[in-house]
Amino acid sequence: MTENVDVVLIGGGIMSATLGTLLHELQPDWKIVAFERLSDVAQESSNPWNNAGTGHAALCELNYMPQVKGEPLDPAKAVSINEQFQQSRQFWSSLVEKGVLDEPKTFINATPHMTFVRGEKDVAYLKDRYEVLKKQPLFEGIEYSEDSRVINKWAPLLMQKRRKGEPFAATRVPAGTDVDFGALTHQLFDHLTKSGVDLRLNHEVKNLKKQKDGGWLLSYRNTLGHTPNQIKARFVFVGAGGWALKLLQRSGIPEIKGYGVFPIGGQFLKTTNPKVVAQHKAKVYSQASVGAPPMSVPHLDTRVVDGESSLMFGPFATFSPKFLKKGSMLDIVTQVRPHNLWPMLRVAFANPDLITYLVSELLKNHRKKVESLRTFMPTAKDEDWTLIDAGQRAQVMKKDPKKGGILQFGTEVVSSADGSIAGLLGASPGASTAVPIMLDLLKKCFPNEYPSWEPELRALIPTFGKKLNTDAEAAAKSTAATAEVLGISA
User: Fold this and answer.
1) Which residue has the higher pLDDT, 289 or 185?
2) Residue 191 in contact with residue 183, Cβ under 8 Å?
3) For the purposes of burial, counting CB atoms within 10 Å of the CB of 390, is it exposed (0-12), middle (13-18) or buried (19 or more)?
4) Strand, helix or coil at 81?
5) Which residues have a Cβ under 8 Å from the Cβ of 220 and sit 6 or more positions away?
6) 70 conformational bin, left if phi > 0, alpha if psi -120 to 50, beta if neither
7) Average pLDDT in the 169-177 region?
8) DSSP assignment letter at 288
9) How far apart (Å, rounded) are the C-alpha atoms in residues 447 and 231?
10) CB distance 92 to 436 below 8 Å
């Protein structure tokens, strides 16, 4: 007899954990089953060593506020990203107060966010960016300096033995954060399983078939015993990282036509040398290399994982045809369909700089990678730093009416017209904005239930449905309240 449930979550990452938690809070009577093909949750992109742990709020990431020749700097995207992160912070704060999440320092820590640039052109751009952002309520407290003595106080490793006469500048926001999305994911799933949600590890969904009654019949197997089985759900969420594309293609929904993904891996240099780690407490971002995707912007980061501090620098791009670290070597080939072949070819033709960038990254040995680090940290020593492999990112490629196909950075939800299935494609700033992404999904996929859910959503997220950046008093009040609960006051 086929098992019947209300919701199936595919993938054991932060996205499924967030959606599952929201649905459980809103509809505790619904039966939810989550499938994860590996032996534990948070083993791919949500794992703390597979990402940089940046609480993406556009405080330091220049790609959220690009300079367009002949046009004034527009803060709209940066403000939007910050607004979204505030919703995540509010949701996490509510879950801490409800006892769903553990002590905040187990998953989030105060870490200033900085931007550091060199050269006259980038210095001028950073100053213009500062002048625009300091007027935005959500960016209150942002600081700017071209003074080596000031920057040395903010982040000493940036200034030691730096060449004299070189133009440089930095901005700093003390209210930044470092987030362990692995710990956060584990805590959310721990609560869900204790509350009756069925988490099935070592189980892989192989196929999905739409039923006449509007539900979905999923075929899955136990990866240890290879036992095939089936389950029927009213709603399916595919939060399987790079494999979301493959499963959405198997579902047959027309909305996935024209989509493809381009896998990009990464490595970080890591040090746990206490003398080095003690001199740097910040996440410092800079400008991306020519042709580099936004996720490859170089940054020198404080990381706090399991209560232990370390530093990471990178990322350095790698290439694998796999869509996940534990994926298949055939992933990049098996995604090809008649409807997405042309858009993907157009992306390849239109992005030669990306190919050049990837090749140059692949040719770097350990010594060359430490040399790249020295643009940030002139005193870096080869022996202090080791390479670690980060997660695989599947960048979205899709149809475009004018260009034929475009490479899109960021995250995108693809859902069926009837809202019975949805999946998430793309990468950064995904995890940091998981809450607003899932709120949008709820509104689109559950139009009948959504109005009755709004009071509970407002209880979980006090500024739900409001814009903080238009109200300086509300912005200050909200950020102060969540900072106090989460223990991240600057």
Assistant:
1) 185
2) no
3) buried
4) helix
5) 35, 203, 204, 205, 206, 228, 229, 230, 231
6) left
7) 96
8) P
9) 24
10) no
Q: Write out the two tokens for 107.
A: 């998953």
Q: Diameter of the chain by CA atoms?
A: 76
Which pLDDT belongs to residue 290? 59
Query: What beta strand segments (E) does 295-392 contain?
Result: 299-305, 308-318, 386-389
Q: Which helix (H) or strand (E) holds 123?
A: helix 120-133
Residue with tokens 């940030």: 376
Q: What domains sit in the chain, N to C, each tagged with a CATH number?
A: 3-472 (3.50.50.60)
Two tokens, residue 8: 């199936």
List all residues 6 or more positions away from 22 whose beta carbon is below 8 Å from its beta carbon.
435, 438, 439, 442, 460
Q: How many Å apart are CA 173 and CA 144, to the nearest integer?
A: 9
DSSP string across 385-410: -EEEE---EEEEEEEETTTEEEEE-S
The whole-angstrom separation of Cα 411 and Cα 391 is 16
Q: What is the 3-state secondary structure (H, E, C) of 7-62?
A: EEEECCCHHHHHHHHHHHHHCCCCCEEEEECCCCCCCCCCCHHHCCCECCCCCCCH
Can you tell me which residue has the tokens 């704060």?
A: 93
197 vs 190: CA distance, rounded Å: 9
- DSSP bridge pairs for 208: 218
Peptide bond into 315 cis (omega under 30): yes
Rounded alpha-carbon distances, angstroms, from residue 55 to 82, 203, 340, 449: 10, 30, 33, 31
Q: How confident is the model at residue 289 (pLDDT cuts 50, 70, 90)?
A: low
pLDDT in tens, 371-412: 999 999 999 999 999 999 998 888 899 998 889 998 887 788
The structure tokens 């530093």 sit at 311
45 in Cβ contact with 36 (< 8 Å): no
| 113 contacts 57 by C-beta, under 8 angstroms | yes
DSSP 163: P
Query: Residue 480: helix, strand or coil by DSSP?
Result: helix
Q: How many residues in the chain?
A: 490
Distances (CA, A) of 434 to 181, 428, 440: 11, 10, 10
